[in-house]
Amino acid sequence: MSVDVERLVAEALRGGADEAVAVYTELRSMKVEAENGRPKSAESGVRSGVTLTVIVGKRVASASATAVAVEPERLAASAVSAARAAGENPHWSGLPDPSPVPQVQVYDPEAAALGPEELSQLLRGMLGEAVEARVRVPMALVEAAETRVSLASSRGHSLEYRATSLSSFMAANAVEGGVVGSIAEDFYSTRRFKGFEEASTGLAARVSRWARESLNPEKVEPFEGWLILDWGALSYFLSAVADAYNGENVWMGSSRFAGKLGEEVAAQTLTVIDDGTLPWAPGTSPFDGEGTGRRRTAAVERGVLKSYIANTYYARLLGVEATGNSYGLLSVSPTNIVVEPGRGSPLEEAERAVYARYLTGDIRHEDGVVSVVVKQGVYLCCGDSRPVAEVSVSDDLYSMLGRIVSVGGEQGFRSGVYAPPIAISGVSFSPT
Amino acid sequence: MDPQEGLALAEKAVELAEKGGAGYADSRVEYASSYSVRAAKGSVEASGLSEALGLAVRVHLRGHWGFAFTENLGEAGIRDAVDRALRLARSISGEPRGVALGGGVKARFSADVKVDPRDVSPEEKVSLVLDADRELRREGIVDDRVRYSDVRYWKAVASSDGAEALVEGSRVRVLLYAVAGRGGVKSPALEVVAKTGGLEVLRAESPIERAAVAAERALRLLDAPVPRGGYETVILDNDLVGMIVHEAFGHTAEADFVSTGSILAGRIGERLAAEEVSIVDAPGPKDSYGWTPVDDEGVAGREVRILDHGVLRGYMHSRQTAAEMGVEPTGNGRAQDYAHAPLVRMRTTYMEPGTWKRDEIIGDTEKGLYLVKSLHGESDMNGNFMFVVQEAWEIRGGEPVRPYRGVTISGNSLDVLASIDAVGDDFMIASPGVCGKLQLVPVDGGGPHVRTRLYVGGKA
User: Fold this and answer.
1) What are phi and psi of B348, to 5 degrees?
2) Do the beta carbons of residue A33 and residue A139 sit within 8 Å?
3) Is B347 left (phi over 0), alpha (psi -120 to 50) or beta?
4) CA-CA distance, B408 to B406, in Å (whole number)?
5) DSSP H/E element including A20
6) Chain A touched by B185 (CB under 8 Å)
7) pLDDT-derived band at B459, boundaries 50, 70, 90
8) B74 and B197, same structural domain?
9) In this structure, what CATH number is given to the domain that contains residue B9?
10) What is the ipTM of this complex?
11) When you count CB atoms within 10 A of the terminal residue's CB, does the N or C end of chain A come out lower?
12) Of chain B residues 317-376, which have a CB less than 8 A from chain A?
């Protein structure tokens, strides 16, 4: 069931709003799940809702409802009433004007046509990669979804798109002779079917192998060497970096990147791009939550801070351009984080290192505290590599960015992060 | 729609599913209405209202589960959801899964709500949020954010084994975040007030006072050093005990994880900790953020004594895991909302109090760290965990002498439990949060202060 977003905007203006934006989102999803290594359930549903945001003077409020329950006049009246009751936001400077919206590849009819039988077959393919007796699979799933979004505003926006998404997930652990290994997990997401099956079975094989390897890891004494982050660990590390160049945090005051545009903030080997237009990537869409076109934004280029990511609200406050990163009207969120491949081969170059597939702990953009444990790690030394027991790392995020000594040439992917392995020198490791 | 009408629709869905061939079915109709305000830098940024209503139906057919939901609660919408659930269950093949019957509850549960959030004007809530934000905005604080939300909800649950349950509740939550800064140095702090109940919650636990705590902590830690890492004697506050009990221990006692080889698998009856250590997962207390008097499978919530005086006694179960282990379900089958099927989840998980006074534990500690407030954490099926601690105090000769920042703790839950040598009498439910095991559900936890040994992360 669709909702006429333009009518909602008109109702809001008629009801006393000075500005209004309405967003309708419909999500059709289907999922098959396995538990304890066996198929368990299939699920489906349609979620559809609308959010109407109104501005009265400088007072901002929104009202949301499921589409089936929407009565345009009532929703508009609720939003206007909430705005009148809210305090004034002195920094509000108006909705954005319409801007060009890119053509992006986000809808795949083949993905949209998948039914429960096809998803079950994909799930069984994944489970087939984890049949070794020692390996248990607490959870695995395959999910397909189709999204429709339409947006209208009092500034003249009238936009819509539909997108597909496919995702797979598996968690596994290994048990042998009373020893329980640490849990390994990985997640894959794309907007098209092509390559999805191979990626999902590859994920399952990888997770199963990591789980097995964690059964008898080598314990190491404290040492200093390289920390090599693969795409799984890197997604955690880069999330904190993205928090630092997020315009919301910059303006609010928590980011140490405030006032540093044009300055060197990382080693020259590092280029980080926020790319909301990357073909078939999960963070890609034609426009963001306020109707601004997605784009490719170099946040850090050859180690220099080039841009913050921002919606219109924070862009105006910071005196920069909006980058198509609005999440709602007043929040900023990254899209796909891309690290440009380098020319290095961290795994071959390392003399003594820990190769990290997964990190747990804390990496804070505010004070730069890095206090993490490397899980599913591999110890590299003297041309040899062996699974390593958990080791801890305590360091400083901003110092680590300057100590990136090698960036690999081949990108991997996890959770919206496309990155090659990167190596950071001078890291101290301690057994936990 | 009122809750009683919702229950009639849930019963209708169950009846249709049974007619369609389901051996067992359950259904929920859920309604939620929420209000939120966010403020920063001395003014309101925005406020919001939202409403949602939907129906979920789950069928067990030839040993497999089919689940569907709909927001169209008309006759056609419900029939379509039931048909989809049946078709989906038929699409699954392989070894059948069990379902435990017989626990369906007929009852109506209401949260204790003295000041209904709906009866309080938005202006009053905005004023409260601005007062809290003002308290954060002290000299030296460079980032201040307050997030307020309240939700009124009801849920109707029906099942093939006779569940006809209604739950009416209300939750209130305020997040208070401050960052102190000087030059390039920053120091964050976070306080959370979250309870089941009405606005009276914020009279008992004032967000303004908690804002002061957050601001003072951020400022205090601005000049604090990061400690040297190592294996230490530590005193954990109520919040950290709640975090360890939930994340590091509780998840390993969830029966779906037990069945795939968690560290607690096959150890019922084994002594894992000292006599003084008991850990419980409970449907209440009624004001806890994780209050769940009946679960999303229609099973009445019962207390699970996981660790009883140091001995492992039980796991938490859904209908499926209970059937597979040959026990009764415990009321731990919970779902995020009508768009999700139930999983085994915790509710309010805590360590029971002991006999030590908090100050006795500190005074009795010659050298160690007093750890205050968790930020977040992760754990593993083998019991290994890592948590982020907001503030640590070095203890020398039984006295806290100086604060540290940037502290993490890690270890294995069973080692930590086995090392506990003092359990306080100052029991408190103090760890409200949202657990993210594939779905988001409100949980709570806590306990008394305890002393143990674990690895403290800091400088190498």
Assistant:
1) -120, 115
2) yes
3) alpha
4) 7
5) strand A19-35
6) yes
7) low
8) yes
9) 3.30.2290.10
10) 0.93
11) N
12) 320, 339, 341, 375-376
